[in-house]
Amino acid sequence: LEYSTVLFFLQELPPGSRILDVGSGLSIFDSLLARKGHQVIALDLVRPAMSRQKQRDWSARLEAVQGDALRLPFPGDAFDAAISISALEHMGDGDRSAVREMARVAKPGARVIVVDSTSPEDDSLDRQWNYIEKLRDPSHVRNYRLSEWRAIVAAAGLRITSEELGFATENGRGMDLLAWVRRMNTPPAAVEDLTHLFRNASPALAAALRIEIADGAIRFCVPQVPLAALR
Fold this sequence. Notes:
three-stranded antiparallel sheet; 26% strand; single chain; globular; 11 strands; eight-stranded mixed sheet; 9 helices; alpha/beta
């Protein structure tokens, strides 16, 4: 869903446009953008490896760069679009610097697009959801509320043109809890705690995460917001 949303926001970019993907790890989505004829720079803290297939097919249009999202190694006004998908939640207050940096390197009139997890505006649900994320993945810092995301984007001097609260799913279904924790190698004790939390979730939390329990399986959806803005 997040990829189709970003493609929608980028659909008017002509081939050859320079696109920066922050925290991407050289994703399949970057390859897709390169196949569409764009010049894609994939930046991450660890330089991602590029397969021989990618090198052969898209080396002229797809470049992997090691760098810090809080201090992007690019001059200002360098990109026709800057995007970040499910990466900024691990930066905490650094999100503000990362979005400012994305705005800095974007050309005037360029799109800056952030798709990331979000949290309910309710204080208690906000705490519970971020606790769940931290228990699953200690590198998680914070899922911002939509109101906080708005403030971060505005503080970077960007004008929001589109926002839509939604949910990250797996093939249109809720995510399987065990598969979700397995992807992060969550320790067994933490998995046990998470299972207990989901099985005993309050009606408000169950509604916020769309928790479903059937045949022993626990499924839920991650609240997510795509924000598109113009510099």
